[in-house]
Write a structure and sequence with these properties.
The structure is a single chain. The protein has about 350 residues and is low in regular secondary structure. About 15% of the residues lie in helices and about 10% in strands. A 3-stranded mixed β-sheet has the order 3-4-7, with no helix packed on it. A two-stranded parallel sheet has the order 1-2. Strands 5-6 form a two-stranded antiparallel ribbon.
């Protein structure tokens, strides 16, 4: 008779087998690249963190999941200064230290201090602009602040169309599937204009390796994802009341906030933005394109949330990308960028700021 302990041991062995595949876009934690034993323990005694076979010594909240550690500490054991994976916290000292990371970098609560430069791990604060109000405690429990899996699915997204960097389709107030961001899964370097993200090289986080398609010229998948927590800051004109925007002929009037989709650079008769201005820069912020034209921007160039903000954050307030268009690229912008006007000047000529 096959013993249950043998079946369990075999299952753990299968989970731990190395993958022969290379995944683009952050699909490491899915399918045959999923390594259960990196994050979970089968028995308490298997964990070097726990001195005896007694479930009472597990950290609070971890008994059901058999996690080796707190969620943030566990994720950062591979994603902070490790050669195993990309570094997502603070200065880049991880696997690819020369990368200008597409998402920038997170900060973390130290005592009661918040950096205010992007997403803050362990923060209990409500998400700015959330409607209804969302905070990590609503999902994680009282006293448990923002963690990595509030935005990322720890087991990947194998249940449906894989999402870019394992981003959850139901983060914040999004309903399941509402915030899905698709990408060219398993086919790095081969663009698919029906997917939201084009990944040029597997396992690289440098912004040069990523561009953003626009399958729906009237909307933004990235905007919908971000709107799960920052509803009032994102949307398209004439659709989302927080953005406003009433079409009058070839123009929009009465904007309340900057759109995160649905309006191309220079499309409104050059009234508020200039495609020529944007195309003239050597260093350009990332925009969406329904035709896949980024080297030579065309009339389908559309800004979205990550055009102005680093997803994780950077050294600037709100993770803003202060990019002048000149000098070496940095996660804060570029060597010539230092003011908000440099960012706005990517698309807007000075008299119209």
């Amino acid at each position: 008779m096959v013993r249950l302990s043998h079946i369990v041991a075999f299952a753990v062995l299968l989970c731990a087998l190395p993958s022969a595949h290379t995944f683009a876009g952050g699909g490491y934690h899915e399918g045959d690249s999923l390594d259960c034993s990196e994050c979970h323990v089968m028995h308490v005694a298997d964990s070097s963190l726990l001195p005896r076979d007694d479930i009472s010594v597990l950290p609070p909240g971890l008994a059901g999941e058999l996690l080796k550690s707190d969620v943030n500490d566990l994720c950062l054991s591979c994603h902070d200064g490790s050669v195993q994976a990309a570094d997502v916290l603070g200065l880049n000292s991880g696997r690819y230290p020369g990368d200008v990371r597409q998402a920038g970098y997170l900060n973390r609560v130290i005592g009661s201090a918040h950096a205010g430069t992007g997403h803050t791990l362990d923060s209990l604060d409500p998400a700015p602009g959330s409607k209804p109000t969302w905070s990590a405690e609503l999902e994680n429990g009282t006293g448990k602040g923002l963690n990595c899996i509030n935005c990322h699915a720890p087991h990947g997204s194998e249940g449906g169309m894989p999402t870019y960097r394992n981003l959850r389709s139901d983060a914040g107030n999004n309903a399941s599937g509402q915030g899905a961001i698709t990408y060219n899964h398993g086919r790095p370097g081969q663009n698919n204009l029906l997917r939201d993200v084009f990944v040029r090289s597997a396992r690289r986080y440098d912004e040069a390796m990523v561009d953003f398609n626009e399958p729906n010229p009237g909307d933004s998948a990235m905007g919908r994802f971000c709107a799960g927590c920052h509803t009032e800051f994102h949307g398209v004109p004439g659709v989302d009341e927080e953005i406003g925007g009433v079409r009058q002929g070839n123009s929009f009037k009465q904007f309340l906030r900057h759109p995160s989709g649905g309006v191309d650079i220079g499309a409104i008769g050059g009234q508020w933005s200039s495609l020529e201005q944007y195309a003239s820069h050597k260093n350009r912020v990332k925009v969406m394109s329904s035709s896949g034209s980024w080297a030579q921007p065309t009339t389908d160039a559309t800004p979205t949330c990550v055009s102005c903000h680093k997803g994780h954050g950077n050294g600037n307030a709100f993770g803003l990308i202060l990019r002048s268009g000149n000098g070496a690229l940095t996660e804060d912008g570029d060597a010539g960028g230092s003011t908000l006007e440099h960012l706005c000047g990517q698309c807007h000529v000075t008299p119209n700021l």
